[in-house]
């Protein structure tokens, strides 16, 4: 086939891009006993991005590789860091435990995986799994906002009687839709998107009904 070589090249690149961003879960941490925490389906020990943009020092068009959030080279034109990558202060998280009703919603300045490790060591039966995280520079204030929105269904301190997707939707709305959640399970993410789309369509239908 003519042009076959080029097509193969494109396919390989696409496959590579997908495989570096999307991996499967759960994976037992350390491979022992099958009791490890599920890892993020977006978490990967070696996520590579190619950044194509303009150096903020010299305005030269450049291409640099970013590996796990670190810029792998200075600007080839001026030898300065071409831009800044800034860590976010914390997260508001939604986690669930198949042995418990509802979800836990809280905040941490560490990773959700660290938080889950601590939750799983408190003697509660079953293992917590991450549902969604909301990156934020104001974890305390944003956690308060989210808790307030869930108040009616509070079971205990940070424990609320919501299904995981419903909890993620409430948190998203409580934060005025300004923070996009990061999900840990493709099906939860897909359901979240469908529910948002459904709400949008229902709103449009309601508006149309009023116009007539
Ligand atoms: Zn430069």
Structure description:
The model is unreliable at 1-41 (pLDDT under 50). The protein starts with a helix and ends with a helix. Helix 3 packs across helix 4. It is α+β, with helices and mostly antiparallel strands and 212 residues long. Strand 2 and strand 3 form a beta hairpin. The chain contains 5 helices and 9 strands. It is globular. Zinc ion is lined by residues 55, 57-58, 60, 75, 77-78, 80, 82.
Main features:
binds zinc ion, alpha+beta, globular, 6-stranded antiparallel sheet, 21% strand, 5 helices, 212 residues
Secondary-structure topology with pairs:
Blueprint lengths: L3 H18 L26 E7 L6 E7 L2 E2 L18 E7 L6 E6 L3 H9 L8 E8 L2 H12 L3 E3 L2 E2 L3 H11 L7 E2 L2 H26 L1
The chain binds zinc ion.
How many individual helices?
Answer: 5
How many angstroms does the end-to-end distance come to? 58 Å
Number of strands: 9
Q: Could you tell me the strand content as a percent range?
A: 15-25%
Shape: globular
What is this structure, in a nutshell?
By secondary structure, this protein is α+β, with helices and mostly antiparallel strands.
